[in-house]
Amino acid sequence: MKFIGRVADGSTETFARVILLKGLEGEVVAEQLVLIKNGGDENPLNQILGVLRGGLGKNEFLSPTSYRPDVAYMRYGGEPSGAREVYSFSIKPIGVITGDGLEPNLAIIQPRSPVYLLEEEDNPFQLIVKKDEVLWMDAFMEGHESWKIPVNKFFIPYHVGVYGSTGSGKSWFTRFILIPLYIKAGYRVLVLDWSGTDYAPYYGSASNAEVISLTDITLDEDSILSYLKDKTNDFGGNDNVKDAFDSFVEGWLEKVGKALDEAMVEGKDPEKVLYDLLKNHVNKVIENIGDKR
């Protein structure tokens, strides 16, 4: 950790402002994580993990509400003094680091408390999940490749929604972060890729994945018969009609191909061609049954 400054006055249990050491205003930036040793280095009351927000630069010689010599000097092209210039950031507490992880901070953050910037080796997530059983994502916090994101195993079976505007990275996150996490957790993942472009190309050559065309499922003979059964109210309870449909569904792919070829040659609707084939077949089977009687 790197010492970057101390807490200014006016702090509360939910807010503090750190005054940066000289020369750090170009190094310390918003959204970085810090540790406050509340009360001092020797015997701190607690240690608070926080995030930097709301940077502020102050120079009392350059107040826009009062006319000072430095302001007048600057107006005529001179460079005012920076001797009494102060840079600071507000700190939003995330929680107090305890033996069990993080807890809400209820104590006043004491002025003069030292503030430390977390560096690459100071992974804050290790502090957050001390007693939780977790899996570590392949994702990491921006700017810190070793700060992998932990996921509590208890919540992995829960429903998950991935939301965002077009192009925001939903598919990328699902492909490279979410699916690998489920596989790492021991789950098998079923992906329905309606366009065939979002997921299938990325798993076609994977040793632990199998890509199945949707047409192989929709043209499965058992699925077709089940669909027809549902649409005809179990074939009207007539076993002869059921058998007629069943015999027609045999070789379904061949019949679909024949309907498409005929439709293309004669300029017909392929669905109408397939319907006529089915109708003629069922009628013929029923007529043969009547003749036998």
Describe this structure in words.
The chain has 293 residues and is of the alpha+beta class. The protein folds into three domains: 118 residues, no CATH class; 82 residues, no CATH class; 76 residues, no CATH class. Helices cover 33% and strands 22% of the residues. The strands form two sheets. Strands 1-2-5-4-3-7 form a six-stranded antiparallel β-barrel. α6 runs antiparallel to α7 and α7 crosses α9. The chain is elongated.
Distance between the ends: 94 Å
Q: What's the SSE pattern?
A: EEEEHEEEHEEHHHHHHH
Number of DSSP helical runs: 9
Radius of gyration based on Cα positions: 35 Å
Q: What's the number of domains?
A: 3
Binned strand content: 15-25%
Helix/strand-derived class? alpha+beta
Q: How many strand segments?
A: 9
- Strand order, largest beta sheet: 1-2-5-4-3-7
Helical content class: 25-40%
Largest sheet: 6 strands, antiparallel, barrel
- Give average pLDDT, whole number: 84
Shape: elongated
**Which residues form runs of ≥5 with pLDDT under 50?**
none
Notable features of this structure?
single chain, 293 residues, alpha+beta, six-stranded antiparallel β-barrel, two-stranded antiparallel ribbon, 9 helices, elongated
Short characterization:
The protein contains 9 helices and 9 strands. The protein has 293 residues and is of the alpha+beta class. It has 3 domains: 2-119, no CATH class; 131-212, no CATH class; 217-292, no CATH class.
